[in-house]
Amino acid sequence: MTKPSDFSPAEALEVSTSSDAKQSRGTRWMLRIAGAGVLLVGWLVISLQDIGQLALVVNTIVFLVMALYAFTAAAALRSDAVKEERKLRLRLLVHNMELESISMRDELTKLFNRRYLFERLERELQTAEGFQRPLAFIAIELKPVNHVNHTYGYAVGDQLLVAFGQLLMDTTRATDIPARMTGNKFGVILPDTSKRGAYTLIERLVRSIATTPLMEDAGLEPAIVASFGMSGYPWGSDTIDAIVQQAESEIAAQSVPDNEQGPAMDIPKVSRRPGQNDFKPKVHQT
C-alpha cells in the first residue's frame, strides 16, 4: 500500500546544506593550516638553537610524529561526530515518520483516516485535472456493525472492522488508497482509474467479502452486508466534496424502491450470512 510522504529521507539525512558544507570545509582547512603553523613555530623555537646537532633531528622526528598523531586524532573525532550526527538524524527521521503515520492512520484498522483521505483526494484530483487522467473513488458501507456491537459486544465489532480493513488492504492495488471514513464507512481512492476500472475493483471486493472469513472464531461470524458506491473524475464530478457525496448517494440509492431514482450503474451489494462461503452478491437493478 502506498505510503505517501512529502519529504525525502535523503534530504533529512544530509549533514548540511551545500552552502553550510562549503563553509564547514573552509573552516576545517583554516584550522588545519593554523595547527600546522603552530607546530612549525614550535619546532623553529625549539630546534633553531640545535642547528648542526643531533638534537635537531630528534626534535624534528618528535614534532612530525606529534603532528601526524594530532591530525589523525582530529580526523577520527570528526568521523565519529559525523556518524553520531547521522544516527541522531536517522532516529529523528524515524520518529517523524512514526508521528506522520500516526497522524494519518486510523487507530483501529490502520487504514488511512478521513482527514488524510480528503487531503490525498484533493491532491489526486489536481493531478488528474492537470494531466487529464481519470480518477475514481469508491465508498463502502458495512452493515450492520451497530447490531454486531449490541449482539456480540464491541470487541467483536472491532475485530470485524479490523478484519475488513485488512481485506481492503489485501484486495486493493498498491497504488490505491483505502481509508476508514467513519465508524462503518470506508473509502478507496483509485488514481488513474476509469469508471470501468472502479467497477472491476468493486467486483473483486465483492468476491473477497463473500468468500473470505472475517472472524477467526467461526461461531462469531456475523451476518454482514457491504454496499458500494462510486464516483470520479471526469465522469462523476470535479470537486472532492461532490465526488464523495455522489459515491455515498449511490449507496443510499440502493435502499430506495426500484421505481425511484437509482445509481447510474448496477453496483454489487454483497450480503453474507454466518458460515456462507459461496459468492452470491445482491445487485441493485437500475
Brief write-up:
This protein has 286 residues and is α+β, with helices and mostly antiparallel strands. It is built from 8 helices and 6 strands.
Question: Would you give an account of this structure?
Answer:
The chain has 286 residues and is an alpha+beta fold. The protein has 2 domains: 9-104; 114-283, 2-Layer Sandwich (Alpha-Beta Plaits), CATH 3.30.70. The chain is 56% helix and 13% strand. The protein has 8 helices and 6 strands. It has helices at 9-12, 18-47, 54-104, 114-131, 145-152, 154-171, 195-211, 240-253; strands at residues 135-143, 177-180, 185-191, 224-233, 268-272, 282-283. It has a 6-stranded antiparallel beta sheet with strand order 2-3-1-4-5-6, with helices on both faces. Strand 2 and strand 3 (185-191) form a beta hairpin. The longest helix is centred in the first third of the chain and has 51 residues, at 54-104. Residues 133-267 form the GGDEF domain. This is GGDEF domain-containing protein. One of its GO terms (molecular function) is diguanylate cyclase activity. Keywords: Membrane, Transmembrane, Transmembrane helix. It holds the Pfam family GGDEF.
